[in-house]
UniProtKB/TrEMBL annotation:
<dbReference type="GO" id="GO:0004803">
    <property type="term" value="F:transposase activity"/>
</dbReference>
<dbReference type="GO" id="GO:0006313">
    <property type="term" value="P:DNA transposition"/>
</dbReference>
<dbReference type="GO" id="GO:0003677">
    <property type="term" value="F:DNA binding"/>
</dbReference>
<dbReference type="InterPro" id="IPR036515">
    <property type="entry name" value="Transposase_17_sf"/>
</dbReference>
<protein>
    <recommendedName>
        <fullName>Transposase IS200-like domain-containing protein</fullName>
    </recommendedName>
</protein>
<dbReference type="InterPro" id="IPR002686">
    <property type="entry name" value="Transposase_17"/>
</dbReference>
<feature type="domain" description="Transposase IS200-like">
    <location>
        <begin position="9"/>
        <end position="126"/>
    </location>
</feature>
Length: 190
């Protein structure tokens, strides 16, 4: 089943992602990012927990757990509502017309702990994979920072911090995983 057709199942974790049509820039300014976050809070938090996110200029990633009481159609409608509200706002702000996001959004069921951990790392790695940041801490629009600060955020942190055995092990896993990828790349090129 394709990533855009997997049924949204209550209680399950999903990797949700989408990009701009033709790699157009979605987010030009801090205000654009902030508006997207407000829409995520308004539309998605009632139907899912957000465990990770990375918002880049031309695409986004979310790692969510669908609330037990949420029907598949409810989540899909809320995703559509958030995207449509952002497009209308951006079209008005920038004097543009037409769609902005690829449709439909993509979704991948995360069926086991190993895949969950990999997906969290993959989402947090996106800013420097795409060369928007030089390290884990320097991209403002990634939930990595939410995990290492001790104040409330829109991210549900307890599940993954418990899974890793605390904040220090969470940080260490990200660093070690990144180092291993760099070693593999070097060996593959030799």
């Amino acid at each position: 089943m394709s990533a855009s057709q997997q049924e949204i199942t209550p209680g399950e974790f999903f990797h949700i992602y989408n990009r701009a049509i033709g790699n157009e820039v979605l987010f030009h300014t801090d205000a654009d990012y902030d508006h997207w976050f407000q829409l995520i809070k308004k539309f998605l938090l009632p139907v899912c927990e957000i465990h990770a996110y990375c918002i880049l200029p031309n695409h986004y990633h979310l790692l969510v757990r669908i609330q037990d009481h949420t029907a598949s159609a409810d989540f899909s409608k809320k995703m559509s509502d958030a995207a449509n509200a952002f497009v209308k706002w951006k079209n008005l702000k920038y004097g543009r017309k037409g769609g902005l996001f690829m449709t439909p959004y993509k979704r991948k069921l995360l069926q086991n702990e190993e895949y969950l951990i990999w997906c969290l790392w993959y989402i947090h790695r996106n800013p420097f994979h795409h060369q928007y940041a030089e390290d884990w801490n320097s991209w403002r629009y990634s939930s990595y920072q939410a995990y290492i600060i001790d104040k409330p955020t829109l991210v549900t942190k307890a599940f993954f911090l418990e899974l890793f055995g605390g904040k220090e092990k969470f940080i260490r896993h990200h660093m070690v995983q990144g180092e291993e990828i760099e070693i593999i790349k070097k060996v593959a090129l030799e």
